Amino acid sequence: MPDARSFTRLVTALPATVPFVAPEALERHRGEPLELRLGANENTFGPSPQALAAMRAELERSSWYGDPESYDLRNGLSQRLGVAMENIVVGAGIDDLLGLVVRAFLDVGECAVTSLGAYPTFNYHVAGFGARLEFVPYRDDRNDLEALAESARRHDARILYVSNPDNPTGSWHDAQAIAALLDALPEQTLLLLDEAYVEFAPTPPLPLDAEDPRVIRLRTFSKAYGMAGMRIGYAIAERSTIAAFEKIRLHFGVNRIAQSGALAALADRTFLQGVIEGVARGREEYAELASSLGIATLPSATNFVAFDFGTPERARAVADALLARRVFVRMPGVAPLNRLVRVTVGTPDERRRFARVLKAVTP
Amino acid sequence: MPDARSFTRLVTALPATVPFVAPEALERHRGEPLELRLGANENTFGPSPQALAAMRAELERSSWYGDPESYDLRNGLSQRLGVAMENIVVGAGIDDLLGLVVRAFLDVGECAVTSLGAYPTFNYHVAGFGARLEFVPYRDDRNDLEALAESARRHDARILYVSNPDNPTGSWHDAQAIAALLDALPEQTLLLLDEAYVEFAPTPPLPLDAEDPRVIRLRTFSKAYGMAGMRIGYAIAERSTIAAFEKIRLHFGVNRIAQSGALAALADRTFLQGVIEGVARGREEYAELASSLGIATLPSATNFVAFDFGTPERARAVADALLARRVFVRMPGVAPLNRLVRVTVGTPDERRRFARVLKAVTP
User: Fold this and answer.
1) Closest approach of chain A CAs to the CA of B244, in angstroms?
2) Which residues on chain A are in Cβ contact (under 8 Å) with B46?
3) Per-residue pLDDT for chain A (363 aa), expressed as one digit of tens each?
4) Do B11 and A248 touch (CB under 8 A)?
5) Cβ neighbours of A20 in B, within 8 Å
6) Cβ atoms within 10 A of the Cβ of B61, count?
7) Taking CB atoms and an 8 Å limit, are B18 and A246 in contact across chains?
8) In what helix (H) or strand (E) does residue A190 lie, and over which residues does it extend?
9) pTM of this prediction?
10) A69 and A158 part of one domain
11) A72 & A214 share domain
């Protein structure tokens, strides 16, 4: 009997796809645990001991809802970043905030522009809210800022989504280039700037001008701060944009322990600096390892390195061989990036183990 | 200069309202901490020690994303509840799941029915997705199931939202009454059954028939399990409904520590039973306290008791006087429920302190 209760037209029409297969799913599928988890750019240096201590203490209050305003954290961010609290909203990670921005800005059928092969969760949300995507190919393994702006103009885009530093290439455009992109955008296009990896960037990002209505910056505690499992990130935007988010966001969506850990993590600059330096050393090690095996790598402004195996076939073979040895990495699915294998910078011990396995599987 | 970047028509039209003022906001507004936090039905008995231990241990892996499938927890729930894993989705609390259901089932302009003065976050999501609400008054301080079904028929509703046990009245309809409601619903109406407080109910709920497409059950670790701050709950529904949720839900929205705590909490039946018994004693104490002061109370199937002050003026005066003595409680905003003051059952010590303050402020 067909059931009269029906999904929305939009949901009915959506394909059943999921942006990512998680390492846990790989483990279940393979029936054995992974040895090295280097595919999701989790920060294996972990959270700051101060953040861990704060979270441990806050567990005693886990029966209390978190503050829906994330007041203390927004206050801390405000002081750290020099923007007003009214310019900050906290969400359950950038994935959550991407959905919020898409929902707030894209009417059904409206257009968003992104690089072909860029972070797929943005695309997932655009499809999920019934808007449409225009793709611009990467150029020399970097976001092609001029072509992205041109596409935004041509397609009357409401959002241009750019990750900078970029995922999955690791590439970086400096502040001047992003400022030029902003100036090149048509008036109706919002720049959604995903800065998940910004703490690892080699030069300062575009200065924060929180009252600039042309751009929303997304940042997270998942990467440099090592708190991916806690699901907490934030957006910086002009205050009327934040006020619009307040009308639709999930007010009790952020975990109380995460709020407390993020605030403590923010204060521990020494630990953060150590992570950044440790990751920089790791990137160099990966480049040397690759070079010693005759493999190219892309320059990286993130906590991962894209190893360039030249062809999709070779990249696939290496990724499969790594997984067979219980090493989880990721391979971008779309040409021309599908000749890359993206490897998270692990701890020194993890890097030694990765080097051993990579040497063993590289022909 | 007017900015050409524009919010969706829907977001532009939405009012700037927030379902709840949080206790933290009250503290900031008043400039002093609260003494007793009895307004959000948090479980002050706390989470199970086993859940706390599991969460403490899992903090060591907080740099790892949670499993987007919440596989282990769904597996545990499946075994506990006797429904298939394919009938379960895990979300960041019932608030999150309410949004998911509304988004999946309500096209713009479609109708949902709810009791007037019921849990407002459902209404928030319905408005947020551009659907419309029809309200049915409470009858004798209970959900009026017949009138709700009649309203669903009259307004061609796609969703009927009922909390059972109910918030804010604490009332309960037994399994037979809910079965009759299901049979009375028109074919196109889905029953969204919010069972946040079901563990406290005096009689068994409607048996789970996960393949019944007419109903979605929502449950949480926020109430009986004492983990409100962790933001984790689940929905039980027919598998094609769960599959539809998979197309739009935030796959990485649930905190890793919460997943691990929920699984451990589920296993600790002894602690849960103790909480349920402790809460039952507390409800009796509240009823006796009220009676000794000449105040009526409503029967409760939850972890709170609605004190009935007869008039909105008297209820408001008492709620204000309690707050002046730093006791946080809630008063439903809508007549005829606005003669009630809703007080969470606290620990024995909290109840003693509450009794002292209530006696002092009751004329």
Assistant:
1) 7
2) 60, 62-63
3) 345 679 999 999 999 877 788 999 999 999 999 999 999 999 989 899 999 999 999 999 999 999 999 999 999 999 999 999 999 999 999 999 999 999 999 999 999 999 999 999 999 999 999 999 999 999 999 999 999 999 999 999 999 999 999 999 999 999 999 999 999 999 999 999 999 999 999 999 999 999 999 999 999 999 999 999 999 999 999 999 999 999 999 999 999 999 999 999 999 999 999 999 999 999 999 999 999 999 999 999 999 999 999 999 999 999 999 999 999 999 998 999 999 999 999 999 999 999 999 999 987
4) yes
5) 68, 251-252
6) 17
7) yes
8) strand A190-194
9) 0.97
10) yes
11) yes
Do A131 and A243 share a domain, yes or no?
yes
Does residue B182 share a domain with residue B86? yes
Interface A–B counts its CB contacts (< 8 A) at 256
Residue A175 resides in a domain: yes
Task: Tell how strand A304-308 and strand A296-297 pair up.
Answer: antiparallel
The answer to whether position B351 is within a domain reads: yes
The domain boundary, picked from B267, B293, B312, lies at B267
- Cβ burial A119-148 (10 Å sphere, 16+ → b, else e): bbbbbbbbbbbbbebbebebeebbbbbeeb
CATH number assigned to the domain comprising residue B69: 3.40.640.10
CA dihedral B55, B57, B62, B65 (to 10 degrees): -80
- Based on the fold, state whether residues B71 and B173 are members of the same structural domain: yes
Is A106–B8 a contact, with Cβ atoms under 8 angstroms apart? yes
Report the sign of the C-alpha dihedral through residues B210, B215, B221, B225, in that order: negative
Q: For residue B346, which of B26, B36, B23, B9 has the smallest C-alpha distance?
A: B36
Chain A contact probe: residue of B85, B100, B252, B272 with most A CBs at under 10 A: B252
- Name the domain boundary from B267, B287, B315: B267
Place of tokens 């000749």: A339
CB < 8 Å to A242, chain B: none
Could you tell me which chain B residue has the CA closest to the CA of A216?
B5
Residue type, B184: A
Do B281 and B296 sit in the same domain of this protein? yes
Sorted by sequence, the CB contacts under 8 Å of residue B246 that are 6+ apart come out as A16, A18, B89
Contact (Cβ atoms closer than 8 angstroms) between residue B70 and residue A23: no
User: Residues for chain A: how many in total?
Assistant: 363
